[in-house]
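thread from #wetlab-drylab

HS: before we spend reagent money on co-crystallization trials with NAP, can we at least see a predicted complex? here's what I'd submit
DV: go for it
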Amino acid sequence: MSTVLRFHSFGLDHLAFDKQSLPAVGPLDVHVRFYAAALNYRDLMVVTGQYNPKMELPRIPGSDAAGEVLAVGDAVTLFKPGDRVASLFFQSWHDGEIRNTTGKSALGGPIDGVFATERVLPEGGLLHIPDGLTFEEAATLPCAALTAWNALVEKGKLCAGQTVLLLGTGGVSMFALQFAKAHGARVILTSSSDEKLARGKELGADLTINYRSKPEWDKEVFELTAKEGVDHVVEVGGAGTLPLSLRAVKTGGHVYLIGVLTGKGAGVDPTPVLAKSIYLDGVYVGSRAMFERMNAAIAANKIHPVIDRVFPFAEARAAFEHLQSGSHFGKIVLSLQQ
Ligand SMILES: NC(=O)c1ccc[n+]([C@@H]2O[C@H](COP(=O)([O-])OP(=O)(O)OC[C@H]3O[C@@H](n4cnc5c(N)ncnc54)[C@H](OP(=O)(O)O)[C@@H]3O)[C@@H](O)[C@H]2O)c1
């Protein structure tokens, strides 16, 4: 029996715990006991109905979890009982380019997620976690970390000496900071909070800008880069920040479209994209093969995810409210230990 968090209608008020029996373990399936799960901004959008108001309910949210293999099907070759594993965001995206159908296999969206103590998943939908990470740390990798890795490393081919601009101090940005520093890049970090910027500096941010006190932060970025602009922007803000990001990037630079924290839909002037030959790249998490490469880099560089706070599973609603407040720095985790 698995303890699951589920919602029958949209809204945090409708989150409730439930018991669910597990399906039989098929030949290619793996039965996992999850010990930790991590929240993403997307989970908040899913539960509140902003992600897909037509989503079929009830639904178990959550794309990110880590735990231990309890049992494997007869034909499973990748795992054995006792292995430490994490979930793969897109259960069907193993390698190569993203496809039209990839989105249908996203955990905690079109299919039930992993805010659950136990699940049976296909072996292709799990990965070994890096040695040296706790379950709580490993649970933060499937969405935010892989998205930052896909943008800067897989798509961006980030090089030492290049400059990376990061918006805010949420989950994606803090992984991007750690990956950028591991590659020898220079990081400019923005935040609404001077205290968070100071913490960002401790993690290696070279230059910081408070986007509240400097709302025209693109001009600051220009000054800080000798009027050149940055090589890469990890764009998590969406409609409210994209025009500034397009001004802050250098000619021939990369802007990775990742998030919509400030909203969607507003018109954006395409002129700078063509005039500056900007590479505008949509990023949607990443594949299993990218996750494997990211894990190798995490292990080699002894990277530990930045965890803001761990909530007991029973306080999942408070964890969502903490995410909603925007007061966090890095990742928010649920402990699924009982
Ligand atoms: N495309 C994908 O595959 C993918 C994957 C993961 C996430 N996302 C999306 O990316 C976005 C970020 O996700 P996340 O999990 O990192 O979120 P998060 O952890 O909730 O990040 C929240 C932080 O973003 C910062 N922020 C908010 N408004 C901002 C603004 N106007 N300018 C700059 N920073 C701002 C704030 O940082 P400060 O408090 O420091 O100001 C806030 O604390 C979300 O929209 C999410 O849905 C997309």
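DV: The mean pLDDT is 97.
HS: ok that's useful, forwarding to the group
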